[in-house]
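Researcher: Here's the sequence for the chain we discussed earlier.
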Amino acid sequence: MNKHYFIAIKIPEPVATAIIRERDKTNLLQTHKVLPVVEDLHITLYYLGEVEENTLEQIIDSLRLLEWDSFELKTRGVAHFGNKSTPRVVYTAIEKSNPLQFLQQQIVQLLADFIEVQKKNEFTAHITIAKKWGSKESLNLSEFALPDLAFEVQSFSIFTINTNRSPRYEEISIVKWRRGGNGTTS
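Model: Thanks. This is the structure I predict for it:
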C-alpha cells in the first residue's frame, strides 16, 4: 500500500489532552468508529494523498521557504459535519483566524506548483475528535464543556498515515515559522 500524506498543525499536548478528556464525557465512544488519540489531534491544512517521494521532498523544501509569523489560535466548543443527529465528523471548533487562513492559502498556492490542487469548499479549521458514524444510539454532547483554550502556532508538519497503528499519524517533517523581510527564523 502506498503512503498518503497531509499537512497539518499538531495540537499541543495539554490542549489535546483537555479535548480528549471532554470528548470522553460524551457518548462519542459508542456512536463513532474512529476516535483519535491525543497524539493524533491536529488541524489539517491540506490533504496531499499519495505523493511520489521526490515530489514530497520538493514540497517540503518549498514549504520551508514560506514566510509567515507565529500566531495564536483558540478553541470554540464542539461542532459537526453532516446530519445533526448522526454526524459523520464531530470536532472541536477553532475561532476564525486571519493568520491561519492566510497560511493555509499560501500552502495551497505553493502546492499548485507540484501537484494538482483540489478546489475545495471554504477552509474550515477544526480538530476532529470522532468520525465515521456507527450507531443506532442518539448523539449526546451535553457533557462536552471544553473552555476556550488558546495555543501558539509556531510550526506545522507533514504527516504520513499509518492505518494499522496508534498513534496513526507519523510526523515526517516540521516547518517552523519564518518571518519575512530580514530572513530571521525561529
